TrEMBL record:
This is GNAT family N-acetyltransferase. GO terms for molecular function: acyltransferase activity. Its EC number is 2.3.1.-. Residues 14-182 form the N-acetyltransferase domain. It comes from the Bacteria. Keywords: Acyltransferase, Transferase. Belongs to the acetyltransferase family. RimJ subfamily. InterPro entries: Acyl_CoA_acyltransferase (IPR016181), GNAT_dom (IPR000182), N-acetyltransferase (IPR051531). Gene3D superfamilies: 3.40.630.30. It comes from Leifsonia williamsii.
């Protein structure tokens, strides 16, 4: 069950759309450009991650998950550049009807409401098109900017998970959030 997503126009002429294989070069450039900006919030990356072929491989993996109905991989596009990405992932059906969301923005695009606008579009898709009941997110304890984005989008803090993810080379605690999409 391949999951669909309709392109959305975001503030500042940014387009939110499905990731494509031909995004590999632009994604590699965006990750390289934002390497220091994202390093405190990301897993340790191999050098291959910052190459076109490394991104092509990741895109293929994400598109295969989309074809299975377990992910919706999206990018924020500003002209020919990638301005960020947002993924709805780990979609579980059955009694759970839930997914995880994760996102990042190019450092030159922060503070303009783009993360909030993109998250709002993903919430609408998850609820209206995918019929999901709940979306979960996790942030590092010190990632107050991302926590603010989640709070503005109606996510509630549900706890702290010790040693939740290996970020910047070490296991780190995360604040967990959820947004219930249906009453």
């Amino acid at each position: 069950m391949e999951l669909d997503f309709q392109d959305r126009e975001l503030p500042g002429g940014i387009t939110l759309r499905l990731r494509r294989e031909d995004d590999a070069a632009a994604l590699a450039e965006a990750y390289a450009r934002n390497r220091a900006h994202l390093a405190p919030w990301d897993p340790t990356r191999s050098e291959d991650f910052y190459t076109e072929e490394g991104q092509r491989s990741r895109i293929r993996e994400r598109l295969a998950l989309r074809a299975l109905g377990t992910a919706v991989p999206l990018v924020l596009v500003d002209g020919d550049e990638i301005a960020g990405a947002i993924d709805l992932s780990d979609i579980v059906r059955g009694a759970f009807q839930s997914a995880m969301v994760g996102y990042w923005l190019d450092r030159s695009h922060t503070g303009r409401g783009l993360a909030s606008a993109a998250l709002s579009a993903v919430i609408d898709t998850a609820r209206d098109d995918l019929g999901l009941h709940r979306i979960q997110a996790a942030t590092l304890l010190a990632n107050h900017a991302s926590q603010s984005v989640l709070a503005r989008a109606g996510f509630e803090r549900i706890g702290v998970a010790p040693s939740y993810l290996q970020i910047a080379g070490r296991w780190q605690d995360h604040v967990l959030f959820q947004r219930i999409l249906h009453d």
